[in-house]
Sequence to fold (87 residues):
Amino acid sequence: LSIWPKDVDLKKTDLFYIDGLHEGQHVREQLELYKPFFKPGAILAFDDIFMNPGMASMWHDVENILDIDFKTTLPLHWTGFGILQIK
Fold:
């Protein structure tokens, strides 16, 4: 049984929300998995980017994982919220 909607085309998706296991390596693996679907101009939002050293390291290094136009952090809560745009 597949719960994935059949009419979703990730290659046409404009916004991705990344909020997994809150471990830097896990997020890196997610980004590598979904990288083929990130079209130019797509926005990626991340939760808990400063929750632990692994997440902070991933956020600091995200430019080496993805080709991005800009990256910013928002102080919406103590663990951090980050937004970036794919180049």
Q: What stands out?
A: Helices lie at 24-34, 53-61.
